[in-house]
TrEMBL record:
Designated name of the protein: G protein-coupled receptor
Gene3D superfamilies: Rhodopsin 7-helix transmembrane proteins
Pfam families linked to this entry: 7TM_GPCR_Srv
Domain of life the protein comes from: Eukaryota
Keywords annotated in UniProt: Membrane, Transmembrane, Transmembrane helix
Transmembrane segments: 6-26, 38-61, 73-97, 118-136, 163-189, 210-230, 250-268
């Protein structure tokens, strides 16, 4: 397998953009970016960025046909990849619950999404991710020799550890799919009901954009979940060729899954998009003139609950 410079560049650009988006959300002063919705996005982003590094490391090991000298790096990357996937699924589930409560449980929203509760939710998010796969650290990475003499990383040598990890992941995917699908359907039904009753918030396109955000994130997450199902079948049946092939597909699937949130926010969130544009506009003004006046931002987000 040849090393793909183009893919490495794409991976690097995704990491840079995602990191930039997270830093900007943290730095933005607007009240909407201090809400529970964006707090969970930032918390989940750390797991997503970690997965980009770990999956990239696994891709390099496979593409460069590196052998057992990389077994410790491979093991660490596998552990991080598993934990990051669960953290990502839990984070997206929390975001879906947040949007549902913002629209369907308006009277109880402030009581549910306090700062204390958000912190507890994030701690639980990462605690579950760690506990679910801490046993994987006891595993050993297996390498096999191809017909041409090159070495390829297969996975865990201990089939029991591999299967437990796979079934744990599938269980998390089933829970994620069940909860998010049901909540998104109810959210869409409630949105249509409010639209017909003319009770939609003022800038309704923003709410609709976040509904599209939920749908896109759900589809991409389910794409990775389907990959995990095929990987489990290959591991359980001992199909080495299918195992290696589906493992390689995880790279681009993971990149789509974790890069979509920040990219879709730029398109669908008017608050995030306007803050980014204002940032670059101010930077341009600083370079053109040493004296400039910044007008106060009088925008009020109609979706601060998000």
């Amino acid at each position: 397998m040849e090393f793909s410079i183009f893919h490495a560049i794409i991976n690097g650009l995704i990491i840079l953009w995602y990191s930039f988006a997270v830093i900007m959300i943290i730095r933005f002063k607007a009240k909407v970016f201090k809400s529970a919705f964006y707090s969970i996005i930032v918390a989940t982003a750390f797991a997503d960025i970690a997965s980009l590094f770990s999956v990239g490391a696994l891709r390099l090991i496979r593409e460069l046909n590196l052998g057992e000298e990389t077994k410790y790096l491979a093991l660490l990357s596998l552990v991080i990849t598993y934990m990051a996937l669960i953290a990502h699924l839990i984070g997206n589930m929390l975001i879906t619950i947040n949007r549902y409560s913002a629209l369907c449980l308006m009277s109880r929203y402030d009581m549910i999404w306090t700062r204390r509760n958000v912190r507890i939710a994030v701690i639980i998010q990462y605690a579950i991710s760690f506990v679910a796969f801490v046993h994987v650290t006891r595993g050993n990475v297996e390498y096999i020799r191809n017909d041409d003499g090159t070495v390829a990383m297969k996975g865990f040598r201990e089939k029991q550890i591999d299967l437990i990890a796979r079934f744990t992941t599938i269980g998390a995917c089933i829970i994620y799919a069940t909860v998010t699908l049901s909540l998104n359907v109810r959210l869409l039904i409630e949105w249509k009901r409010l639209s017909r009753a003319d009770n939609v918030p003022k800038h309704g396109h923003h709410d609709k954009g976040l509904l599209l955000y939920a749908l896109l994130v759900f589809i991409c997450s389910m794409l990775v979940c389907s990959q995990q199902v095929i990987k489990t079948i290959a591991t359980f049946t001992g199909n080495t060729s299918l195992n290696l092939w589906i493992s390689l597909q995880y790279v681009w699937m993971n990149e789509i899954m974790v890069s979509l949130p920040s990219l879709s926010l730029l398109v669908l969130s008017s608050d995030f998009r306007q803050e980014i544009f204002e940032l670059f506009r101010c930077s341009k003004h600083r370079s053109d003139s040493s004296l400039f006046v910044t007008l106060p931002n009088t925008r009020r987000s109609v979706v601060e609950r998000f």
